[in-house]
Write a structure and sequence with these properties.
Layout: H1 7-11, H2 13-18, E1 24-28, E2 31-43, E3 48-56, H3 65-69, E4 76-79, H4 86-95, E5 98-101, H5 113-126, H6 128-139, H7 150-183
Parallel strand pairs: 4-5
Antiparallel strand pairs: 1-2, 2-3
Amino acid sequence: MAGKVPKRIEQDPNVKRQKDLDARWTKKNKERYYGYKNHVCIDNKHKLIREYQVTSAEVHDSQVFTELLGDNSSKDVWADSAYYSEEVEITLDVMGYRSHVHKKGYRGKPLSEYEKEVNHRKSKIRARVEHVFGAIENELGGMFVRTIGLARASVKVGMMNLVYNIRRFVSLYGAISAYSMKSGIK
């Protein structure tokens, strides 16, 4: 089949209307998922989503990596080892970014103790993006999308990202207001 629509679905408009032809399957840690993926670029300091892109589930994160950087005001890029490759390192350098992408070990060439320590230090900053996905999953119902088509899924995920940012902003604003009242700043 490989991305082709079966004849039964193509010939029957009633069936075709009910099928999501944009969504795809993927496998992660022996578990299968169907649908779409929310790729995000966050502001590391405030944990706000700066950019996002919605793709079908089988698209690897590294395939939309450079598009997500957009007009990133920070020149530091933090990412896990799934993004590491010589090509990505060169691309980031050409774009003027400082790479803090985790190194990855390979069969027969594991990471040295120093590289493991460097990755551990990077993890403390990079993990902030996991807080965003945790909040989306735990507070906003996760990435459960009941729409048909990439366009509608993109709107649904975009609204979810917007709601996350608004909630985060209210939280940050409340923390600033509390600090101001405590300090006597007007």
